[in-house]
Amino acid sequence: MTDAAFLSDRGNVFDEYFKEQGYVCNQIGPHAFGSPFCQPCKLLIIPSGFADPKYYKVLPALDRNVEKIREFIENGGVLLVFGAMLTDYTYDWLPMNLSYHMHFKNKNVRLVKPDSPAALLKEPGMLDCDGYFTESDGDIVMELEDGKPVVVEKSIGKGYVIASALHEYPDRRFLDWACGKDRVTRTI
């Protein structure tokens, strides 16, 4: 059974990490994304740099599956999306309002919404960030010292969108929540 799915045309950078944590993370290629060949999962991961074709060629798959992504989340799926890695980017394919600005820096990140499931993503402190969010209709969970949001979450239906500009793997506590036994696998 697949706990998480990683949308990628360049291999699965999460595979070993998930195995070490006791979970299964399978790669979904952009051509299979949203098709009957796309295995159900609990957590869908969209990688850092997904919008820049020099890193990944997955943006067309996201754009053509807007409705399926929304249904996955509304039905209880968790979508973890990272920074677009473009100077400025609007996540038009998400069922929420979200815009991003790229700015690499190791910064002090503070937690502002400890009761959010997204607070489990990473312990606050000095973390690598690839940018910050400039606009969102979700809840700010973590921010930089100057108040710029780096982790945002929005509950939609029975599921969640977790947007992260942190350039870090999610902590085990987050995986236990997002991929736990109580969560049901959903199709995309």
Task: Give a short summary of the structure.
This protein has helices spanning 15-21, 59-64, 66-74, 172-178, and strands at residues 4-7, 25-28, 43-46, 78-82, 88-90, 98-111, 125-136, 139-144, 149-156, 159-164. With 188 residues, it is of the alpha/beta class. Helix 1 (15-21) links the parallel strand 1 and strand 2.
Which topology does CATH recognise? Rossmann fold
Overall SS class: alpha/beta
Helix and strand pattern:
EHEEHHEEEEEEEH
Number of strands: 10
Count of helical segments? 4
Description of the molecule:
By secondary structure, the protein is an alpha/beta fold. The chain has one domain (4-178): Rossmann fold, CATH 3.40.50. It is built from 4 helices and 10 strands, in the order E-H-E-E-H-H-E-E-E-E-E-E-E-H. The two termini are 15 Å apart. The mean pLDDT is 96.
Please specify the SSE layout and strand pairing.
Blueprint: E1 4-7, H1 15-21, E2 25-28, E3 43-46, H2 59-64, H3 66-74, E4 78-82, E5 88-90, E6 98-111, E7 125-136, E8 139-144, E9 149-156, E10 159-164, H4 172-178
Parallel strand pairs: 1-2, 1-3, 3-4, 4-10
Antiparallel strand pairs: 5-6, 6-7, 6-8, 8-9, 9-10
List keywords for this structure.
188 residues; alpha/beta; Rossmann fold; 10 strands
